[in-house]
Please model this.
Amino acid sequence: MTATAPAYPFTAPAEPPALLLDGITKTYRSKAGAVDALRGVTYHFARGSFTAVMGPSGSGKSTLLQCAAGLDHPTTGTVVLNGVTLLGLNEVELTKLRRAEMGFVFQAYNLLPSLTVYDNVALPLRLTGRRPARNDVQRVLEQVGLEGKAKRRPAELSGGQQQRVAIARALITRPSVFFADEPTGALDSGTSRQILGLLREATDRAGQTVVMVTHDPVAAAYADRVLFLADGLLTGHLDRATPAQIAAAMSDLER
Amino acid sequence: MFFLSRQTVGRHRSLYAGSFVALAVGVFLLGLAATATAATVAYHGPASASISVTTLGGDGTPPQTVKVPLSDADVSGLQTVLSMVGTISGFITVFVIASTFAFAVASRRQELGLLRLIGATPRQIRRMVLGEAVVVALAASLTGAVAAQLATPFLLSKASYTELAPVKLEPASPWVPLAIAVGAGLLVAMLGARSAARRAGRVAPIDALREAALEPPRIGPARIVFGLLFLAGAITMLTLIRPSSDEGAVPLAMFTPMVIVIALTLLAPLVVPLVGRVWALPLVAWTQVSGRLARSNVLAAPRRSASLAAPILAISAIAGSMVLSLSFAADSAEATIRDAVRAPIVVTGAAPVDVAGVKAVDAGLPVQLVRVAADYAELEDAEGIDPGIAAQTRDLTELSGKLSDLTGNTVAVSKEMSGFEGYDVGDEIPVVFADQASVKLRVVAVVKNAFGVNPSFLLPLDLARKHAPDAQAERSFVLPADGVDPGELVKRLPGAQLAADWEADQAEGVRKGNRVGLVMLLGPAALYSAIAIANTLLMGSLQRRQEFVTSRLLGATPAQLRRMVLWESSLVGAVALSLGTATTVTVGVLIRHAMTAGVADVPVTVPWGILLGIGALCLILAVGSALAPTTYLLRVAAGETGVQQRE
Ligand SMILES: Nc1ncnc2c1ncn2[C@@H]1O[C@H](COP(=O)(O)OP(=O)(O)OP(=O)(O)O)[C@@H](O)[C@H]1O
Ligand SMILES: [Mg+2]
Model:
């Protein structure tokens, strides 16, 4: 086990990164024993980049995402988001940072079932104490193609539509970094394309940074760069790759 | 956050309906106790039935004139019972509400985590949970208060002209008592909600991502510390239930279980899995998959299981201890009465005993007197006796002084009274008789306690007759002449019984009185607990819709799921009942030891029927209210899974 894994990629970035991971390790301890989920990950996510993280099941992808988003504390190492070190923040400061700078999309749609689509999307603004402007909410709903569904409840929407509500909710605060964990994991390919298109748009049009964990080479091909993770270590990357190239790299990794 | 509170209360209807019902019933009971108390306070008996007494004053308290009602207009008995009903109901309410709110939070971990994830601060979550509690508590308290107000006339008509309140009671102004009940309800809800809210605020954003969102197994150090403190308190109280505590033993036996219940509930997330593991052994051995599933469901969510077990534990421990203690108290009363009567024959009634073959008749005169102290005056029962005869017919063993000095303005007091008030031979007790005469009585002797046979104050017969000319003997102890067979004499005497029969009747009277008291004290609490047990288990099952749907899709049959729920609720019930039983047995053994010290041959009466009935009822309620919603959900789910499979 090497605690001092080399930084990845090996060139220093030209401008300050949106998100910086430095020597992240994560060890889960439970009665069953200790699991080293991450064993030293160092990486700079450039501003406005769309990065996919791939790897075999159990390789630590979700753990990486959770540590990067400050949802979980790394065992060692630091996370710096837009120049702010997450380690030194208390729960409230972390929440406020999350509110302002991060958006989340997960495989399970994570909507509040009691609220309408409109209220779900407006919720992050309400939590900051702002009164959501009707136009803003309508605008993001249009952006994800859900105009006219504002009054529905999540239970009255399809899986893809629910996922788009989650994206709209992430978009409304204009976060600088999106974290997505298998956002298309439960969707058919057509619906997946819409969702990935929305994430792609976020980087291209608004300069937002996207970090997406996925199992699907087609989904990963939407990214500028695909990172490969195995056994808690970054092992390689592909830039602007095709689904076939990504699939080949993945099957190498899983062998 | 109020916006969210309003929406989520609607969403979690079953959770909040549970809290609503629990609190509304609690406020209803408190409100009833309060309005009835107000009615007794407002009651002013007829002037003729009470005597005005001026207290002595001293120690900074000025003398005061107080009205002491004579027993035929006395409502203090009802007041005492009402205050105890209020205490027990209040305790159970606090208890149920706290665990209901805790349960509601535990069931919503994932949703709370999601709110945290999209930017809610812990403080906002706390405020949201509190906000929801306020909405529910306001509605529930007001509903409970209105119901109490509507039920008050009925309660008062039932309570009027009874032994506890031998007068007609009228409803008094309801505003103050109902305001107190509503205030208490809100306070209880806020206290219960506060700790639940604090726990909700600690839910981490990452909980939104955990599939099952199981609660963390650890319990907070504060909870453990408080649990241990209460446990230490309970143990201290238990050690005080010993022979030397005399009269303190019974109240201790009533309140100690409450403290034990608090301690066990605080420590429940540790204790329940421990006991659960033991009970699960036969379950896993005898059943197939359902018992195993039930075991892991109960053990993997200790806090949830603890909330479900709490009301069962509370009522079984409190009711069990009370039933057993009172039964043992009656046993000891029976033995005391038996030992205190020496005459072989007892005649009931006031008719003079004048047939041949009688050596002596001890026809004591029951009178009432008001004992005057520095800042209060209290009505006491006394009896005028002929010390020469009474010393032969009853056990009047002198512990100090001489009973033969009982002439003129003198009194003999029981050991209990001398212990309470510190009376010694030679002391003077100022009293006022029913004829308004103020007299100072000199203590000439302290005699053995003989509850049920001798009152606390024994006067010379002449003194009693002088101040209460109308007093008549209620029962006389008869000594047959030498050589006369008591069995034969009894037949010739109207209203006579052999002492053994009379003693048995007295003991039966004590037990009957206890039963009435138990129904009054435990009735409301039991009713409330029954509702609470059904409530928490209903809530628990209704929350599991998703789990049932998934299990059905995985191929579990409805019968398997029903069996699983059956075993789960039985397991929780068994754990709670075994803790309740342990409490009952501990208290019972100690109180028995305390009350039988120094009395030989005390009968043992364990009211098995009632005790087993309490246990069975708890179990049936728990299992029934877990199974009913499960069956319902499974029927609904059958439709849903059909649809999903077609898609
Ligand atoms: N809360 C936890 N406690 C203990 N071990 C954990 C926990 N979460 C993850 N692990 C372990 O850490 C390792 C990495 O888990 P992680 O969820 O990051 O994998 P992943 O790459 O996201 O896998 P998948 O593709 O299946 O989602 C696994 O071995 C997993 O068992
Ligand atoms: Mg994962």
Q: What stands out?
A: Residues 1-6 of chain A have pLDDT under 50 and may be disordered. The two ends of chain A are 20 Å apart (CA to CA). Chain A has eight helices and ten strands. The longest helix of chain A spans residues 189-206.
